[in-house]
User: What shape does this take?
Amino acid sequence: MRAPGGPDIAVGDMLLSVENVSLAFGGVKAVSDVSFDIRKGEIRAIIGPNGAGKTSMLNVINGFYQPQHGRITFKGATRAKMRPYEAAEGGIARTFQNVALFRGMTALDNIMAGRTLKMRKNFVWQVLRHGPAMREEVEHRRAVEAIIDFLKIQEIRRTPVGRLPYGLQKRVELGRALAMEPELLLLDEPMAGMNLEEKEDMSRFILDVNDHFGTTIALIEHDMGVVMDLSDRVVVLDHGIKIADGTPAEVMKDQAVIDAYLGVAH
Amino acid sequence: MALDAGGLPNTFTKLLIRNAELYGSRPAMRHKDLGIWQTWTWAQTLENVRAYAAGLNRLGLKRGDTFAIVGANRPRLYWSVMAAQMLGAIPVPVYADAVAEELRFVLAHADVRFAAVEDQEQVDKIQSVQDRLPKLERMIYDETRGLRDYDHARLNSMESVIDDGRKALAGDASVAIWLDAEIASGQGSDASIILYTSGTTGASKGVVLTNERSIAAAADTVIFDHLTETDVALAYLPLAWVGDHYLNFAQGMVAGFCMACPENADTAMSDLREIGPTFYFAPPRTLELLLTRVMIRMEDASLIKRKMFHYFLGIARRYGEAILDRRPVPLGGRLLYWLGDVLLYGPLKNVLGFSRVRTAYTAGEAIGPDLFAFYRSIGLNLKQLYGQTEAFLYVTAQPNGAIYSDTVGPACPNVDIKISEDGEVLFKSPGMFTGYFKDDAKTAEVMTPDGYVKTGDAGFFDEKTGQLKIIDRAKDVGRLDDGTLFAPKYIENKLKFYPNIREVVALGDKCGFVTAMVNIDLTAVGSWAERHNVVYASYQELAGHPLVYEIIAKHVDDVNRSLSQDKMMAGAQIRRFLILHKELDADDGELTRTQKVRRGFVAERYAALITALYDGSNAADISTQVTFEDGRKGAISARVKIRDMQPVTPSAVLENAA
Assistant: This one.
């Protein structure tokens, strides 16, 4: 799966880089002078205590927030301002900390919604649901069914997501993000509120997505065990400042990280 | 088309070829994949199986080898069975949910060189024990997901094997000629499959079945139930289980009907509805689950719908079974039933996926009479059969029109049944096995000198209906002092069908009469108590309540009445019972983890109560240690009352007296 547009980037090369980004809401500094990069094909974790600015960082990457300072380069193009839909078109998909699905719609329709950007026929054709529009829909349905199969959610295909347990809703949300065939997938606490078994399932799916589709993944996670098992590299934020960056093993040993997590007397 | 049992080919492969000729363009298999039902005709199935067989042979599989098959019900795994049979190799299906150690046991015992597996999960499982499977050379997997990066030195995808075989067949005419010769040399007496028993009683044994016997057995029941190539069955029960192999595979091959595979185990219910099978099998557990689901959903329906539901269920109870059995029914009853069918039974069956079912079977354990009657009354032709792996399933089956909830039917066509002196059911059948694989000692153990197979079950022929009744495992059956047969499970099951009763332990072996210890069902009795303003603080208090004793006594009396109808059982009526002061619990070791009573342990633990049951006292004191859920231990002591029951005089005796 590869997003349209932009140059091809080889695995291991830089896909996205964040340089000296600062973001403030009024007087509150959410992110200050943070730089890191995400390489093609890796699983990159962003961790940190509550209020460290992790979600803000994710929101900056997909264009939801505009940073006051700094540059973001995605697939070789440095951008000035980017809207979320532009990010989506560029191949960045995301899931949310609190599940953000259309609760009254079925799992199938929710994932189908993720294909919106890929629909080429115009509104009139879509309404008519005939000829080329129908053929296009069948094609998209096939892609969606492949995702349903991938995530093993066949039995809830026709169930309104509002009736599903939380763990399955998270899976449907991942499905919707995958339906965009993203190049970079941002996961905001994909395992929050899950029990051990659901966490294991979700970890397996994240690894499978990365392995099967070659999707680059940036994820925010609290569960250190999960982070250590899943990610190739970890960036640690605290109070909006980057305090460490490296492999899970390196980061674990870092005194600043230990202090941030355990707390020290100031 | 009518089936001529005499003219059938003698191997499954030849049957497959016959089906491709007779029903070439009819569906043989369906499988829901990516949300769409994919179909393979008999001609396509044959083509694929030929290619697969050729491919397997190129990898080294040959006549006489065993070929393990591990996974869910999927067309390619059934093709694996067919392809092995085509080469004269013997398929050995294994339960997909078997843990690695169980898998290892079967694969090692069956000398398996090749294994067809469903997916990564099964590959991982087998690889984890591979160092102890020196004979296993190669695994062939269906689902490629996750296996891309595995070392493929001893691993092939099924697709690649089939493609390879197809190319070989197309490129070299001698391959096809060789394969045809291999098919022709297949003998009816060749083993067609080895089915491993689940092993709940000791280590699992490999039951060897042959082509001609399997086909003969399947032909008999296909005729018995009028199955044809237009029938459809949903293969949703484990592929390694004799029921699936017989009902779907063997019968499907003989009759030429279509076998549909569900998308996955969790979608079976909705797939059932989409496929609308005409032949259906479900164990009593599944039927109960379905009914519970319907009842729960009805609770949420509007008042009018609820009223209508219960009214028409009443109509169905009164006339439904009679209409199904074509017995006379008054015109008014017929009209009401017809209306009920339009408004309720039809839509209900549609939701459950039973709209097109002509023949449905249940088996495996005793089915509650109410549950059985419910499905029959809404027009589902549900029948009972009795069988086992060693018989290639069928020993008895109920014919249309002669259905009872407490019997399993007369002997199937060409099956010969005998009851041994100690009450064990023995049979001789067309499909019976030739022996346990590599275990002549065990084979000799279950065969009688005159060629009958011992089932291990105790039973007798019911006088009124002429049908077989299975009462208990033969080893659990005892005798009262006066020689009356005592089958604890038979009595316990009769009581357990009452919702108020959760568990029963019947006692009586080597005693003067039968007694019972009862566990009430806290949910059912609790809700009764709420409606009748009976105040209670604990299970113990409710269990000891005099009104609760009244309710249970009524149930016991009903059971005694029903026992009195059977000459064999009339002497085994319950004379005294008590309600236990605590629930039997697996944490206390009283039940197994599968919720079966551990008789020996219970007898020991409640020795004081058992003594009281037999020494005529009205109550007994007991103190038992209990384990709480958090692991702490405590003791419950109680004074348990004992109730005397008046045995019911058998009606026949009454008539004679008058």
About this structure: The CA atoms of residues 92 and 253 of chain A lie 32 Å apart. Residues 1-5 of chain A have pLDDT under 50 and may be disordered.
